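Notes, Module 5: Reading structure tokens.

Key idea: the token line is not a picture. It is a compressed description, and you learn to read it the same way you learned to read a sequence, by spotting repeated patterns. We will look at two proteins. The first is printed below with its tokens.
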Amino acid sequence: MDRLRAMITGVQGYVPDYILTNKELETLVETNDEWITSRTGIKERRILKGKDQGSSVMGTAAVKGLLEKTGTDPLDIDLIICATVTPDMPFPATANIIADQTGAKNSYSFDVGAACSGFLYALQIGNQFIQAGTHKKVIIVGADKMSSIVDYEDRSTCILFGDGAGAVLLEPTTEELGIMDAILKADGSGAPYLQIIAGGSRRPASQETLDAKEHYARQEGSAVFKFAVTKMADVSEEVMKKNDLTGDDIAWLVPHQANKRIIDATASRMGIGTEKVMMNIEKYGNTTAATIPLCLWDYESKLKKGDNLILSAFGGGFTWGAIYVKWGYDPK
């Protein structure tokens, strides 16, 4: 029997309408456009506004668009996995809400929490269900409302993050296409450098935790930067060497959009020129689990069947990884 692989057969993104520019941030915190742009590459980010608007709102919009675009009946979806660190609530899973809102009544669903590497983790999980031959249509969603956990008085974090969602449809193929290989890693000793201290079972919400702003994301920027530059570059190079690939063989690097300097360092290590790097950080900022599918969505028209892609990410936890994808279709 021919080997099954999971192939991405469609991609769709969603970003909110509200644009938070660097100029507006200057009115909220001590910073300026030149400082933000030179250190991060970010010019603006999207923010989800309104009462009771959670990550599921964006994830649902992305999945509905994906189903329509690919002509897929929601009742044919076997599984929905949502990568998020900003679920609508501790339970039920945001994926469950998305499944309900999109009419995927025959699917089961669950969330994956691996911070900025979450989409890669979820993608590989979905890939393994397809490879097992038990699932034929799997949707992977990356959705995060980072504005809900950002302190807009903290210059080290508020300039970085935005809100958004992206989704891909995975289907089986016996061609030499799809997800070819994956290397995923984690190191829990990195937790103190990038975390939300309170709100979990260790430190439940209280007036004390609220007053101390312990429900916002905190990071030690220099430590995270050093880890991210090293680990993203290491794992991207590792997956290339494992599959006998050089920079010339790669059509696109699809990096997590955390910081332009981290992206540039990763591309340099891989021997890939900037013309082969997907980048939209300037208009969306860091949308955590949504950055990679949003890149695929923005660049979909430039992708050709058989293109070699390296998807690479680094996130809090620490988590990191790289996935080698051979693109499955030509521009529609």
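Here is the second protein, with the sequence above and the tokens below, as before.
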Amino acid sequence: MYTSGLAINQDVNIHYLDSIQEADQMLTPIIICPGLSETAEQYEDLLTYLLPRRTIALSFRGRGRSDTPRSNYDLADHVSDLSAVIQDSAIDRFHLMGYSRGVSYALGYAQTNENRLISLIVQDYPAEHKQMPVQWAEDYIHNYLMPTGRNKYIRQQAVKGIQRDSTSIQLHAKLTLPVLVIRGLLEGSLVSDEELLQYTHMLKDLTLKEFAHSAHDIRSTEKDALYQTIKDFLNEHETNGSVDLKAD
């Protein structure tokens, strides 16, 4: 059902999935930035759910069917992966969504490209790009990726590159476009009350949706409600309307 594309970012091939063949070209597309160890393929159900809207999900460097360079795993490198996919898919204006670490990449793009965005969705991650602590990579690989089988989604070389190259960057530029901020309310959510307050300071047009029965991985606990929230927000802002999403 989905077109499989390869965008060339200098000498790095970035893989993405695109629902263009089934989409209504009159609707504004959305691009999805997956989480740290996620791939485009893990969002196929959301691509289907959002039809007839054209939806693109990419696998960042070192993940899925994208290339795994030896170096260059900082914020700017991931933002350049996103930019390459945008250029390759010939999209002018679009909605943008990020989940977890993918929020950093989406916000990093939005800081200097807000004029190309219709709206932005950030799911359960603060407005910053985090520097990974010493020994994070080994712990992440051996105590999370390998026990859960997620090592098939992201290469160890990429994990080590993220630890080595990542720098701490606050992504607090003022944005005027509509932004949907999504967070879980259970322990394990990655957006604290203080970090939510930071979003309210930097966003002029903020809509908040909180999931009372979820921590960080809302897709595993309240997927139907999450997907409906995303679709409703996109549909409302397709016509420059406003949406009021009450907390559960």
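Summary for the second protein:
- The first helix runs from residue 44 to 50.
- Strands lie at 3-9, 12-18, 30-33, 55-58, 94-99, 117-123, 128-129, 169-170, 175-184, 203-211.
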